[in-house]
Amino acid sequence: MHTQATESHLLYKRSMEEGILFELEREHQLKVKAEVRSKLAELEAYQKTEIERSVSAMAQVEKYTETRREMDKRLDKQYQRKIAEVLDKHLSAIQRDHEQRSQIEERRIRDDAALEEAKRKEKALHEEKVRQERAKAEAEAKMKAEKLAEAQKKALEDAAERAAKEAAEKEAARTREKAAAEVAQKGAMEQKWATGAETTSEVKAGNLISKDERTIVPKNVQLPGVKVLAAEAALKVEANRLKIYNEVAEKIHLLAQKDIDRCERQITKYVNQIAGIIENVRAKAQALKNVIKDPACPPSISILLFSKKVVSLCGNPVGSFDRTAFACSHVILLVTSQIPVTMDFVLAEFHKACIYTVPKHLQSSNPALGTREYLKMIGYREEDGKIESSQSYLNRVRSYMKLYAALIQTEVEGIRNPHGLKEGWAWLAMFLNALPANEYTAAALESFLKMAGFALFRRYKSQFLKILDVISRSFLPALKKRDQNKGDIALGLEQYLDEKMYLKEPEGWRLQTSSLSREWK
Questions:
Q1: CA 476 to CA 193: how far, in whole Å?
Q2: Torsion-angle region of residue 222: left (phi > 0), alpha (psi -120 to 50) or beta?
Q3: Which helix or strand (DSSP H or E) is residue 520 part of?
Q4: Which of 296, 339, 390, 491 lies 20 to 30 angstroms, CA to CA, from 283?
Q5: Does position 444 have pLDDT exceeding 90, yes or no?
Q6: Which residues are CB-neighbours of 235 under 8 A, at least 6 positions away?
Q7: Residue 488's pLDDT is what?
Q8: Which portions of the sequence form the region Disordered (predicted)?
Q9: Of 361, 413, 91, 364, whose CA–CA distance to 231 is shortest?
């Protein structure tokens, strides 16, 4: 078409204006084309530049990403290294601690093993000596073995019969004690203790116990160089209990030692497991009744072993003994409900272990009687030739009195306590009438009141308060006057009276269920 236009221009002659316009138009077209080409070139150059810039930016981004990734890897390695170091230090510390504990435990085990080995050797030597003596005795009595067995059986049966008879006599003695306690309720006592406390106490509103019971030093219980301060009724009851006890104790050597040891191990196991929980008390009482009734060992011997073990808990009390005392008292009462003579044996064991459970006090009246002999007579222990400290002795007296006081107030539904609050009230009356005020009697009285005061106040109300008033106005002043350098002894009694601790239920008075809720008394 352009060719045709050119040819038309060539064929036809144009005017000058048209020629100029044509040239201008052509020049304009050329200029526009040049500008378009220039613009396209610029755009291509710009696009190329932008592409290069984008490539460079992407390269930088990738380089930054790679750098960051490497940095993160290094940081992660450092963090993992630190964690590993801390963990290693922790594990090393744990290992060192474990090793130290292991070493301590190994030393303890070695020491225990050495101690057990020493005890075993000592026991083996003792058993060997006993075995040799027994073998010698058996060799001498070989021809009389059958007769001896028959005599043993008959002797044990006779002892059981005598125990039953003595139990009846004991019941009569208890009746006399109850009568004394009932008389005590009619008035308050006003005892006037002298320094030696050798005179009987008087009561302002009436005698606390009858005149014959206030005989302080019965003629039939005099000891050389020693005055026995006690109510005559208390000494008679003690003598009856010890008679029953000793008759059985004298027969124990007639039994085979292995039978006694087996029975004693079973009783020890169950007594040591007693806790202040209802289910535990019932279970241990039933287990102990089964052991006592086991025909492998005569019941009287089993009862004696049970009495020894349960009272021996006071010798080395562990932890909170108050709670243990109430739990043991429930077990004693539950066993007694099926085997009545058990109570007599337990009380006899109390009297053997602590004279203040009678109550009685031994007063030296002969200067020739040495201090060591006198202390041993009132209950001090001697080990390796040394008499124990007064603090150790007083701690044991307190424990014995706590268990005794817990026993007299223990009540179980459907079971009568043969040595209950009436006997406890009679004990308190005889104690204050017959015994002097000193550090031993003060410790016994304080422990008894702390355990039994709550129950006695609930039962006797104003009469018990009169007793406390007599203690405050007579016993405490006499105690302070006698033992001026031992104010801490009187402090416990003063605190009990001032703070009216008899209003507070003692710890362990109520047995607990397994959920630790108080439910049973």
A1: 10
A2: beta
A3: strand 518-520
A4: 296
A5: yes
A6: 218, 221, 228, 358, 360
A7: 77
A8: 119-144
A9: 361
CA 413 to chain centre: 26
Write out the two tokens for 393. Answer: 């002795």
Hey, CA dihedral for 121, 125, 130, 132, is it positive or negative? positive
Averaged pLDDT for residues 76-86: 90
Query: Tokens standing for 377?
Result: 């007579």
- In angstroms and rounded to an integer, the radius of gyration of the C-alpha atoms of the chain is 50
β-sheet bridge partners, residue 229: 361
The pLDDT of residue 456 is: 96
Q: How would residue 229 be classed by pLDDT, with cut points 50, 70 and 90? A: very high
d(CA 13, CA 18) in angstroms, rounded, equals: 10
What's the chain's length in residues? Answer: 521
**Residue-by-residue DSSP string for 29-81:** HHHHHHHHHHHHHHHHHHHHHHHHHHHHHHHHHHHHHHHHHHHHHHHHHHHHH
How many Å is the maximal CA-CA distance in the chain? 185
Half-sphere exposure of residue 155: CA atoms within 13 angstroms, side-chain side: 16
Strands, E, within 285-420: which ranges? 360-364, 382-383, 386-387
The token duo for 371 is 């201090």
Pairing of strands 382-383, 360-364: unpaired
Q: Distance between terminal CA atoms of the chain? A: 132
Q: Number of C-alpha atoms within 13 angstroms, CB side, residue 221?
A: 21
Closest by Cα among 509, 440, 516, 519 to 479: 440
pLDDT digits (tens, 9 = 90+) for 373-427: 889 999 999 988 899 999 999 999 999 999 999 999 999 989 999 999 999 999 9
Cα–Cα distance measured from residue 295 to residue 500, given in angstroms and rounded to the nearest whole number: 50
Task: State which H helix or E strand residue 313 sits in.
Answer: none
Q: How many CB atoms lie within 10 A of CB 47?
A: 10
Q: Contact 310/400 with Cβ under 8 angstroms?
A: no
Does the global pTM surpass 0.85? no
Q: Is 229 exposed, middle or buried (0-12, 13-18, 19+ CB in 10 A)?
A: buried
Residue 360 has pLDDT above 60, yes or no: yes
Residue with tokens 């020493």: 118
Separation of alpha carbons 518 and 508, rounded Å: 9
Q: HEC string of 219-241?
A: HHHCECCEEEEECHHHHHHHHHH
Closest to 304 in 3D by CA, of 362, 345, 275, 340: 345
Tens of pLDDT, residues 93-127: 999 988 898 899 888 888 888 888 888 898 888 88
Element (H, E) at 296: none
SS (H, E, C) 456-496: HHHHHCHHHHHHHHHHHHHHHHHHHHHCCCCHHHHHHHHHH
Query: Crossing angle, helix 421-434 and helix 439-460, to 10 degrees?
Result: 140
Structure tokens at 226: 């020693």
Give the C-alpha separation, 352 to 302, whole Å. 18
